[in-house]
Amino acid sequence: MSVNDEFLPDSSYVVLGLLSFGPRLTGYEIRQWALGSTRFFWTAPAMSQIYRELGRLEAAGLVTSRDEAVDDRARTTYGITRRGRTELSRWVNDAPLDEPVFRHPAALRLFLGHMADRDRLVELLQEHHRWVSDLLADLAEVDAGLADDPSFAYPRLVAQWGHRFYGGERRATREAITTLEADVRGRSID
Amino acid sequence: MSVNDEFLPDSSYVVLGLLSFGPRLTGYEIRQWALGSTRFFWTAPAMSQIYRELGRLEAAGLVTSRDEAVDDRARTTYGITRRGRTELSRWVNDAPLDEPVFRHPAALRLFLGHMADRDRLVELLQEHHRWVSDLLADLAEVDAGLADDPSFAYPRLVAQWGHRFYGGERRATREAITTLEADVRGRSID
DNA sequence: TGTAGCATGTAAGCCGTTACATGATTGA
DNA sequence: TCAATCATGTAACGGCTTACATGCTACA
């Protein structure tokens, strides 16, 4: 295994990937873009994490920074370099595909339902259902905003994927609530 | 905010929750149970993490350990205490419901599809599709094994949820592959 | 005038992983 | 006899978060 076979942490490629769509962005703007796109399938990194990644990427020559401060307003934009594109492409194509990581607090609560107050458990699932619904609404909005710009063809594909994915999750949650409200005990799952 | 409003890390409740189903378990067995149940909605903790949690839980009086070594074979079982049940119940009912955490490497690769080789991208999605299919098969097996034991009523509900959840994910992945194989460019999402 | 948003960073600390280390039992 | 499984832990490390710290701009 050569040195070239090693990769940066995934979060580095999230940041680098956001910059690969073209515009130079500030750390703050990268966060905004992440909240409007990658957060549907990846945790949006904390601001401090983004700045750290940018430092790491710059040190590796994968991005360049440019000080565009206006007056006293600090503003540093970052842009992807040729080497950055090469490295991102290498990762997308060659990195082993890791398994998804899901941490689903509502499912964990349901799993431990025997320790819960029944009404409270239903409430928790309803709260989760609202969260999924809100997310689906956000997703639809984002998708609409992507318009027909061909440079966002893949993000639009992801939006489509997300629509089905979270749609399935909403249905699953709704069914769980229905079953729970009827009667848990003695029911078979079939 | 009183001291009582603070909670242990989520992973502690995963371990404690597994013990709440009854039998005394070794650390190793807790891992097996996690792989057969919670892993469908939570990362299965590393062995070292499980032992650490058990140490923490025992220090807090939420579990007790018992040395059941046979001959030279080390074997320490853990069981939940009364206080452990109280604490778990408190967490299930009173802890704020965190948002799900998803890290979806296949979706990230699709998002960055403009940096990928098209055929390779399709391959990656197919690999993910196989992963989902395998997981669905495992889930069905687990569900069947749960039989009609009333103490596993909630885990069965979760299995049912998982069936729909991962079913949605499989469909979403399949559609993405189909679209990708047809033609990405110039397609609208509608 | 004051709050929300824009913008950048450091410090501390937990979570959780991989690597390392050890050794017995079971079955092919 | 050799590999897989059972079984338990320690050490080192990286990832990522929250808390802290600072200060400007736009707008209500």
Could you explain the architecture of this structure?
Two copies of one chain form a homodimer. With 190 residues, chain A is mainly α. Helices cover 59% and strands 8% of the residues of chain A. The first copy, chain A, has helices at 10-19, 27-36, 47-59, 82-94, 105-111, 118-146, 153-182; strands spanning 25-26, 63-67, 76-80, 101-103. Chain A has a three-stranded antiparallel beta sheet. The longest helix of chain A has 30 residues, at 153-182. Chain A starts with 9 loop residues before the first helix and ends in an 8-residue tail after the last helix. Mean pLDDT of chain A is 91; it is low at 186-190. At the A-B interface, α1, α4, β4, α5 and α6 of A face α1, α4, β4, α5 and α6 of B. β4 of chain A pairs antiparallel with β4 of chain B, so a sheet runs across the interface. Chain A binds a DNA duplex (28 and 28 nucleotides) through α2 and α3.
What's this model, at a glance?
2 copies of one chain form a homodimer. Chain A has 190 residues and is mostly helical.
Uncertain regions of chain A: pLDDT < 50 for 5+ in a row?
Answer: 186-190
Mean pLDDT score of chain A: 91
Proportion in β-strands of chain A = 5-15%
Arrangement of strands in the largest sheet of chain A = 1-3-2
- Output the structural class of chain A: mainly alpha
CA radius of gyration of chain A:
21 Å
Question: In this structure, how is the largest beta sheet of chain A organized?
Answer: 3 strands, antiparallel
Strand elements of chain A, count: 4
Largest interface: A-B, 78 and 78 residues
Distance between the termini of chain A: 48 Å
* Count of alpha/pi helices of chain A: 7
Task: Name the shape of chain A in a single word.
Answer: elongated
Order of helices and strands of chain A: HEHHEEHEHHH
